[in-house]
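Go through this chain.

——
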Amino acid sequence: MADLRSNFIGIKSPNPFWLASAPPTDKEYNVRRAFQAGWGGVVWKTLGSEGPPVVNVNGPRYGVVYGADRRVLGINNIELITDRPLEVNLREIKSVKRDYPDRALIISLMVPCDEDSWRDILHRIEDTEADGVELNFGCPHGMAERGMGSAVGQVPEYIEMVTRWVKKHSRMPCIVKLTPNISDVTKPAEAAKRGGADAVSLINTINSITSVDLDLFAPQPTIDGKGSHGGYCGPAVKPIALNMVAEIARNPATAGLPISGIGGVTTWRDAAEFMALGAGNVQVCTAAMTYGFKVVQEMITGLHDYLDSHEMTLPDLVGRATPNVTDWQHLNLNYVTKAVIDQDACISCGRCYAACEDTSHQAIAMKPGRVFEVIEEECVACNLCVDVCPVEDCITMRELEIGEIDKRTGIPRGDYANWTSHPNNPMARAAE
């Protein structure tokens, strides 16, 4: 059976599945239950400076986006960092780590952007025996208005400065948690690396309003008739997170920088996709909040089975897909496919026909008896029919052989050619 033991920047855990810093990791009781369920590590909910405690709202804290079957697709969270006293958190962290020495325990931190505040909090946590710290530069609500969270994460110079302070005043490995609320995630990642970060984690939550109550005319969740923007997470953010992880993994300035992948990890397959794009491990929040801590057991079993079936080790998986991520202009414009409908599997629902006829290229014909056939002369291989078909593998895409005539264009399929050398590219013509 595949070995799932993880060594992420020197932090060892029995598997690569960590709980992200969030409500599920706010106290000793929760974290112990998480470790009993099988989680390999936990990032403790963000701690702040000692002093007047953070005050969270006492009304609804979550807004939800549902799928058609009421499955949770995304959660908007307006909760802030821990509102429990610092000393209580530190005492509980030390207690948990003492009883679970084989599990990763990371402390998430967020304090004002001055060296004294960071030095003080780092000295306070030194004797907890935690395995590392994660700098929360991503929270988009509440704390950002106080000059912390994403207010720091959106300024690369601040990221580099604070990271240097942390490495100067702490022996612990340092993970910098990045905000997605930025135009180019590689810039803050580069800043974290320059500051000496041992790794980055991403993505934090996306600034959002999930819905509006059309009776109260206020965003949800609603607090005394008012609503606020919050942090969006869950399966719906996974595509954004995957792209940002890949951008850092393939950026020459950050290639090789360890990444902890976050954002919509719900199944073992989600985790494997993050790791294939360069993440060394993954962090999970919404799936645990939706299904409970035991969801990790399916993740562990599924990843075991996948690695065994592909005769891969865990390190083999990390970054396996990164070399295949490219920019659009390097895609092969001579690669041609055509849709093919398996008539034995077709249930004659007509969804492919409706989608193609109304919104695409009129490349599917409906014959007598509701038989649907592809019109190759019109098919541009957009694969919308594949995406809307309710029967898996009923519609597939057939690749044309080199030299085979494309019935739509009348041109034989050629060898590799991309936009940089395409005759329609004005820049390519200018270079001749």
